[in-house]
Design goal:
Structural class: mainly alpha
Number of strands: 2
Number of domains: 1
Strand content: under 5%
Order of helices and strands: HHHHEEHHH
Helix content: 55-70%
Oligomer: single chain
């Protein structure tokens, strides 16, 4: 945990930018996602270029672009649902009334559980982690940290669904999200770790002190966002009783 101070500072700045996007969204979120896409695409190209075989490189680039574009587009889709005060919804909505703002709650549903799982898994794994989860792919991951991260993600899902949404999300949506977000984030993390391992590098880049590259920071989110987007689509289409 020697790099914890740098990780914390970087995470606070990164988190502030994304949380602000969850309050402002619109063109600001589009701009942030466009920048992330370009930076992550450069990292993906460098990683794929280090792979030994041409067909493997092509597969990594194509698959990586699909996951990257799909994940970031899903985040943008989450900003299409807004709740708040004034003209956008009923004026008596109970969404942080002391702030009197409009928010994009589904963005928070993707971000906060992902971050909670990442932070708790890192801390618990560093402190008490003993049993390796996938030593050949990601030697630092442990079962103890991973399971703690799943629990943290589930708690964060409940918090966002009950405290940020107005009215609260129904159990039929919260339970699947609570069960799916942790594993989805882990799969995204392991996919990127496998690519880095095959390329023979520790981090995808160096742009984020303590975290490595952009892909190192958003790998989990790239699979979590589509899961949350599916939940939003179900919410809108009336597939679940609200």
């Amino acid at each position: 945990m020697r790099d914890l101070p740098w990780r914390t500072i970087t995470a606070l700045i990164y988190g502030a930018i994304f949380l602000a996007s969850g309050l402002v969204a619109g063109p600001w979120l589009t701009l942030v996602l466009a920048i992330l896409f370009v930076l992550a695409l450069q990292e993906l190209w460098r990683l794929a270029s280090a792979l030994p075989q041409v067909r493997v490189r092509v597969g990594a680039i194509v698959g990586g672009v699909v996951v990257l574009a799909g994940g970031l587009f899903a985040l943008l889709y989450l900003s299409s649902y807004v709740q708040g005060h004034g003209e956008l919804i009923a004026p008596d909505a109970r969404v942080w009334p002391w702030l009197r703002i409009n928010i994009y709650p589904w963005i928070f549903m993707a971000l906060l559980p992902t971050w909670a799982a990442d932070i708790v898994a890192y801390v618990v794994g560093s402190l008490i982690g003993r049993r390796k989860l996938a030593p050949r792919i990601s030697p630092g991951k442990t079962w103890e940290g991973t399971l703690a991260g799943f629990v943290a993600a589930a708690i964060a899902v409940w918090f966002v669904g009950a405290q940020v949404f107005s009215p609260s999300l129904p159990t039929e949506i919260l339970v699947p999200l609570a069960l799916a977000i942790g594993p989805a984030g882990l799969c995204g993390d392991l996919l990127e770790s496998a690519l880095k391992r095959a390329a023979g590098v520790k981090d995808s880049g160096t742009i984020l002190p303590g975290h490595g590259g952009v892909l190192d920071r958003i790998d989990s989110l790239l699979l979590v966002a589509p899961v949350v987007a599916l939940a939003l689509n179900a919410y809108r289409s009336g597939m679940m009783e609200l």
